[in-house]
Amino acid sequence: MKRFAAYVFLLALLLTGCGGPVDPDTAQESIQVLAMDTAMLITTYGERSPAAAYACEDVIRDLEAKLSRTLENSEVFRLNAAGTLEDLEAELRTILSQAGYYCQETGGAFDVTVAPVVSAWGFAGGDEYRVPSQEELDRLLELVDGSAVKVNGQTVALGPGQSIDLGAIAKGCAADRILEVLQEYEVPRANISLGGNVLAWGDRPDGTPWRVGIQDPARVGEPNAFAGVLELTDAFAVTSGGYQRYFEQGGKTYHHIIDPATGHPADSGLRSVTVTAPAARKDDWNGTMCDAFSTALFVMGEEKALEFWRERGAGGTFDLVLVTEDGRVVVTEGLADRFTLDETSGYALEAASQ
Ligand code: AMP
Ligand code: MG
């Protein structure tokens, strides 16, 4: 991941009146952060909104400095270079344990050891996009095996020749840590948008839920073209889609979500997967879960994704919005009355129940 050093200060509006009391509904700080290859927008409310917004930025920069596989001093860079690391920080240890767990849970559809394959296609940053030969992919696929990563106390060891890419959960981890900051600073409401990863905290100042648009993958050039809108309060919503990063060659489109079973961009009939889950406590790691699942379920395709949800998503543990290549939007039970289809999108709305 490239690191963008600069951030743009968008709006700093703190309405304190003339020495009067601060109105937490209108006291607001909004900053844009360019990190993790994405433009992020952090909007916090409440008396401590400026300090909270900058603390959120610190969390993002701190995680990027640890988890990037292109920044030379990051823990992940050092781990990939040496194959082992003996002074593993507690945070990366937890993230790697989470990654191992989700690899197992998703039957390997989510697997951070897919890194060499991601690099071969040029999606690791820095390299040119290219279509690797099948021979090269077959060779690299032998290195893809999440179960070979061993975490033992402060030591982590990769299998021979392996490397890891945490790009599919880094923003989810950041969202989890931001949730902690929001609670620590007693932020009553916030809208945190980490490029496809949203944390809708509290409600809007007028008491209505946050409205989270789901990009219409068929109209990527139009930033406000939505397949539909979710109304969310205290929730994470994470979207994975082939449209988020791709290149074209020989009339074909190749995107960045790799099916670890084939080494090719997943071709599962889905255009995007959004996973939502409650945002209550950082220790739930629900932001990370949504991020891991959105990537994995995109790889799995509609049928397996719904089966996965039926087995594990019961009672609102998590819910899904699937946008299919054949023009449907499938919404699971828990979001039925929180999702509104954009009528101009042309999609047909379908409901999935347990
Ligand atoms: P996301 O946007 O969260 O779905 O993450 C996609 C990113 O994760 C890609 O740009 C790759 O860096 C990495 N990645 C691609 N395929 C996989 C996979 N099957 N499992 C884990 N990480 C992946
Ligand atoms: Mg993800």
Give the tags.
disordered N terminus, alpha+beta, 27% strand, 3-stranded antiparallel β-sheet, 354 residues, binds adenosine monophosphate, 8 helices, binds magnesium ion
Sum this structure up briefly.
The protein is α+β, with helices and mostly antiparallel strands and 354 residues long. Helices cover 28% and strands 27% of the residues.
Explain what this protein looks like in three dimensions.
Helices cover 28% and strands 27% of the residues. It is an alpha+beta fold and 354 residues long. It has a ten-stranded mixed beta sheet with strand order 1-2-3-7-8-11-14-15-16-18. The longest helix has 19 residues, at 49-67. The radius of gyration is 20 Å and the shape is globular. The structure holds adenosine monophosphate and magnesium ion. Magnesium ion binds next to helix 7.
List the helices and strands and how they pair.
Elements: E1 8-13, E2 28-35, E3 38-45, H1 49-67, H2 75-82, E4 84-85, H3 90-105, H4 115-120, H5 134-141, E5 150-152, E6 155-157, H6 170-184, E7 190-193, E8 197-201, E9 210-215, E10 226-232, E11 235-241, E12 246-249, E13 252-255, E14 270-278, H7 286-300, H8 302-312, E15 319-324, E16 328-332, E17 339-341, E18 348-352
Parallel strand pairs: 16-18
Antiparallel strand pairs: 1-2, 2-3, 3-7, 4-6, 5-6, 7-8, 8-11, 9-10, 10-17, 11-14, 12-13, 14-15, 15-16
Magnesium ion (MG) is lined by residues 168-169, 240, 291, 294-295.
